[in-house]
Amino acid sequence: MKDLYKTLGVAENADEAAVKKAYRKLAKEFHPDITGDDKKKTERFKEINEAYDVLGDSKKRREYDRLKHAPIRPDGMPEGFDADAFAQTFGRSRAGAGGSVEMPGDFSDLFATLFGGGGAGPGFDPRRQRTRPVRGSDVAGRMEVTFAEAALGGKRTVRTGSGGTVEVSIPSGVEDGGRLRLPGQGAPSPSRNGTPGDLYLDIEVRQDPHLQRRGADIELVLPVTFGEAALGAKIEVPTLEGRVTVTVPPGTSSGARLRLRGRGVKNGDGSRGDQLCRVEIVAPKLKPDDAETRKLIEELARRTAGDEVRRF
Q1: Which of the chain's ends, N or C, has fewer CB atoms near its CB within 10 Å?
Q2: Cβ within 8 Å of residue 105, ≥6 positions away
Q3: Coil, strand or helix: which one is 97?
Q4: Taking phi first (over 0 means left), then psi (-120 to 50 degrees means alpha), and beta for anything else, what does residue 80 get?
């Protein structure tokens, strides 16, 4: 609301005498008989009269003070504003059917003075005002998903902005930092016919202790012993959907990738990437008193000279 006290140049706690004195001084200064055809000063004179029409009336002043300091609703009007009560307070009663309120042409100007002129004009009646429905606020939240849920998709039940719950489909292939939008699941509208806002969920993917994502593929570091690499082995490894057995061919070297087809991230078209098991040979750590094992390795070293595997 506009500050009528500022218009008259008085403090909000000014008494009736001070308000009247300020009004008389300003009215005399800006009266059209003094200012002539100066449009700006004539408009100022009009604002001064409208301000005094409110502040010079104890009932109107009390209601104006209440509305002036009230919290603002989402539609821009003060909390507790009622068009009918406003008209009863600031209008002029007229004898006749049912004690109706007269709404003279200058009343719309007063409404514009108090509320900034939003749509007021000749014949404007705030009792017939139709507030445009206000959309509810958007709500942002966080949703933590498992590594497997992010790769393969899934379902989750989350709380909405209105306090209810809704089932959410986690799209397959979603990445950490992604955002899901749930239309109409945000805060409800403060208006009767308004639409609710949207709910936005920021995705946080819980990392897996063994699996890592590489685009549509999943990678696993597969530690194997020297004997398993040399002789071959069948080893159980974790995947997105549980443990499966992978075959390590005899003579496998570190860095080799063993492919498990169709065990990777699910794509939007239904296809899937692969899981790649990267072999890492782990050398044995010999105990100082394990002479037998040391002799076996030394014998093996003599039979497989380094020159046979190094080409430089």
Answers
A1: C
A2: 122, 123
A3: helix
A4: left
Q: Are 272 and 264 in contact (CB under 8 A)?
A: yes
This prediction has a pTM of: 0.54
Residue 278 phi, psi (nearest 5): -90, 115
| CA–CA gap between residue 151 and residue 205 (Å, rounded) | 10
Helix (H) or strand (E) holding 87: helix 83-90
Confidence of residue 116 (pLDDT cuts 50, 70, 90): low
- Residue with the two structure tokens 């949207």: 198
Amino acid at 169: S
Tokens 């063994």 belong to 210
- The whole-number pLDDT of residue 112 equals 61
167 forms beta bridges with: 157
Q: Where are the beta strands (DSSP E) in the chain?
A: 92-93, 101-102, 139-145, 154-159, 165-170, 179-182, 199-205, 211-214, 217-225, 233-239, 242-248, 257-260, 275-282
Q: What is the crossing angle of helices 39-55 and 105-115, to 10°?
A: 90
Residue listed under structure tokens 């100022």: 44
Q: How far apart are CA 63 and CA 168, in angstroms?
A: 49
